[in-house]
Amino acid sequence: MRKTFLFMDTIINKVDAKGRVSLPSDYRAIVKESSSEIVCYRSLTSPCIEGCLEDLLDKLASDMENSLDFFSQEQDDLTNLVFGDAKRYPFDSTGRIMLSEKLLKHANITDSAVFVGKGRKFQIWSPQNWEKEEARIRAEVLKNRPSLRNTNGDNK
Amino acid sequence: MRKTFLFMDTIINKVDAKGRVSLPSDYRAIVKESSSEIVCYRSLTSPCIEGCLEDLLDKLASDMENSLDFFSQEQDDLTNLVFGDAKRYPFDSTGRIMLSEKLLKHANITDSAVFVGKGRKFQIWSPQNWEKEEARIRAEVLKNRPSLRNTNGDNK
DNA sequence: TGGTATAGCATGGGATTTTATGGGAATCAA
DNA sequence: TTGATTCCCATAAAATCCCATGCTATACCA
To answer: Which residues, including other chains, have CB under 8 Å from residue A51's CB and lie 6 or more apart?
Structure first.
């Protein structure tokens, strides 16, 4: 039994004519611990798809219930957006999922999909968009390096 | 039961035609306490590979979740950078891992790999790069020696 | 003390399994 | 019926397993 469940690595897979994509086997191994489906929704901030285990959304729901901002407009909007958009995507016996038109369009994905690990969740990008995003992040982090050290608690 | 889990020592092993390297047995003994795989990623600052137990990244994920907002840009960037690059490397029954092309290229490793202990993590260098790095570190220490003496309070 | 047995380790190569991917048949819904 | 989704099988490439070998360090014994 695995102790940790982190989505990692960056993997590019093909989207076939029917719209099917293989979920990377590492991801599948994690998901299989608890179910045979992932939850996906359009990223609120980027032209990409986000995916995670249903557990994470459950935790998000709990966190929001427990927060002081229970009645805030902002929380309301966020939960509407996330839960209104999210949907379960089961994978078949060969490990493929079929993403909806809505998701693919939001992420500009046509024939290839890039899976990017983010720890408890992951993202799915088009190769072109991911290339741009990765460059932006590297530049950004390089600029703010000191704060990274603090968060990390490790200097090297 | 072992009490401490520190990667130590410097060991050079061969990378075979398939890209396999033996993880030093001392390292393996540490890893085996909790699993049979390590996590590796490209060092942000040096031309080498870094490795650690998944626990360390899991802790990082938790820290991020607790200190940054779920939807914040900063959290987004950091998780992409860290988890997008990291990957699990399980070792087989003879104790070998198979490093990816991406990692080998970043560290300029071809047929030999130098494992350098760093406590909770370790680094993997090409012999040439490690030679240079070691020289640099020695020079650095020599340069700072006076202040080191002062701190020590002992002149000889 | 010196020589030898032994266990653990690094390494090589072949066999086996997994994975990503394509396509056809079966099933379902409008 | 038609269009789409699901299931099943096929294949090539890649990853993983497994066994064999030689080396080294340590233990053991005379």
So the answer is: A38, A39, A40, A89, A121, A122, A123, A124
Contact status of A29 with chain B (Cβ, < 8 Å): no
The answer to whether A118 contacts B79, with C-beta atoms less than 8 Å apart, is yes
Separation in Å: C3 C1' and B24 CA:
30
Contact A110, A45 (CB under 8 A): no
Q: B77 vs A123: CB contact, 8 Å cut-off?
A: no
- Tell me which chain A residues have a C-beta less than 8 angstroms from the C-beta of B63: 151, 153
User: Do the Cβ atoms of A9 and B87 come within 8 Å?
Assistant: yes
> Would residue A5 count as lying in a domain?
no
Domain that residue B68 falls in: 10-144
Instruction: Report the residue from A3, A6, A44 with minimal CB separation from B83.
Output: A6
CA distance B70 to B79: 11
Classify residue B3: in a domain, yes or no: no
Total structural domains within chain A? 1
Assess if residue B155 is contained within a domain: no
pTM: 0.89
pLDDT in tens, chain B (156 residues): 445 689 999 999 999 999 999 999 999 999 998 889 999 999 989 999 999 999 999 998 888 877 656 667 887 898 899 999 999 999 999 999 999 999 999 999 999 999 999 999 999 999 999 999 999 999 988 887 766 555 554 444
Beta-carbon contacts of A121 under 8 Å, excluding residues fewer than 6 positions away, are: A7, A50, A51, A52, A56
CATH of the domain at A138: 3.40.1550.20
Looking at beta carbons, which residues of chain B come within 8 Å of A148? 78
* pLDDT value, residue A153: 38
The answer as to whether A1 is a domain residue is: no
Task: Check: CB of residue B19 under 8 Å from CB of residue B98.
Answer: yes
Strand C-proximal residues of B, range 96-115, CB below 7 A, are 96
